[in-house]
Design brief:
- The protein is built from 3 helices and 15 strands.
- It is mainly beta and 247 residues long.
- The chain has a single domain, classed as Porin.
- Helix 1 crosses helix 2 and helix 2 packs antiparallel against helix 3.
């Protein structure tokens, strides 16, 4: 099942109370791929949002493992809808346990004379012969079969490299359709953590928090288009690390 198939299950779960079970091909270690669980929650929230509001940011906490091949449940709560800002929170639960929490903020544009943009530009071209992640058991998680990740800088996890960043491109594999907002959010978490390719052997790792800020309104695009990706480690110690990404 591709991302659109899973999102359709999520849609049916919200609108028709259909059972929501995620197949094993979307596993990331012992849990569901975090980009997919976030996409499902975002889609559920977006159903409650008026068209004039655009997503400004999402803040996701991965509380506990969300297992594949077991039913899960989505709940959405409206925190506040104001004139220009609307905030929502959604939960993914399984066996009565909290697994993933997503808080999302949506805004309407306001008139302003201030306009500043100091974001670094991603000025690099896609190489024709970039490295792709090979399907190595117990090293490369199953969910990556759904993505093309073209690495230009960085490496495969657990190979003992000395770099702590990624530079490359990403897209869904064999998804010849339009790319919804939720599917785009599901793409953003596809690169491995930047710290893993520093390690010389397999080790357990998991994401605690994921924060995404959107500077422009999302719109439907072509799923075959490549998106640039740059991940940089900003801090790591005592078994935890922080990565900043630009797309």
């Amino acid at each position: 099942m591709n991302i659109n198939d899973i999102l359709a299950l999520g849609q049916a779960h919200i609108s028709e109370e259909a059972e929501l079970v995620i197949e094993d091909s979307w596993s990331q270690g012992r849990t569901v791929y975090g980009g997919l669980s976030t996409a499902l929650l975002f889609q559920a929230i977006k159903e409650r949002v008026a068209d004039e509001y655009q997503v400004k940011n999402i803040n996701v906490n991965f509380v506990g493992p969300l297992f594949t091949k077991e039913p899960c449940k989505i709940e959405v709560q409206i925190l506040r809808v104001g004139k220009n800002v609307a905030q929502y929170i959604a939960y993914l639960l399984q066996n009565d346990k909290m697994c993933v929490v997503c808080q999302a903020c949506f805004t309407r544009d306001r008139s302003s004379k201030v306009s500043i943009d100091k974001r670094p530009a991603l000025n690099f071209a896609r190489e024709k012969k970039a490295n792709f992640f090979p399907p190595i058991p117990k090293v490369v998680p199953k969910f990556l079969k759904h993505f093309d990740l073209a690495i230009q800088e960085g490496g495969i996890p657990f190979t003992g490299r000395k770099t702590d960043h990624y530079l490359g491109w990403m897209r869904y594999k064999n998804l010849n359709t339009s790319l919804s907002e939720a599917a785009f959010i599901g793409l953003l978490d596809s690169y491995p953590p930047t710290l893993l390719h520093l390690l010389k052997g397999p080790a357990s790792a998991s994401t605690i928090n994921w924060y995404v800020k959107f500077f422009r309104p999302l719109s439907q695009g072509n799923a075959e288009v490549w998106f640039a990706n740059q991940d940089k480690t900003s801090q790591a110690e005592d078994g935890y690390g922080t990565t900043e990404a630009a797309n």
